[in-house]
Amino acid sequence: MASYQSISSTAASRLAGKNVLVVEDIWVVAKALQSLLEETGLVVSGPSATIGHAERLIAEQIPQLAVVDLKLKGEMAYGLIDCLYDRGVSVVAVSGLISTPPAKAAAIVQKPFSGAELIETLCNVVAAPTRES
Predict the structure, then answer these.
(1) Is the pTM here over 0.85, yes or no?
(2) Domain ranges in the chain?
(3) Among 43, 45, 41, 44, CA closest to 11
């Protein structure tokens, strides 16, 4: 993943202070995501490795954004993405194998991806017009 130095200051300013939930079951990837997002100025909730833990974090505080791996310890996260969407959260789904993209995800990033690609995607999601409830 790209380091903070390669992330533009414009991108960082668009995302600074926003709360993002990270749901990823591979510890090294989850920690790298957390580091990248925090260096960009986001406030990270998690990371969470399971759907159940992610649901508990959502119950405590609804994030503005979420980065969710589609396959978590053998479970598919489509229901979690639907739940986040229904609560007004913009979700960026990440996956190495995207057979069926989740309809309620704001964007999808194919693994492997760079930090700059993820940050650019998050910026585009934040800049997109908000959906009607």
Answers:
(1) yes
(2) 4-126
(3) 41
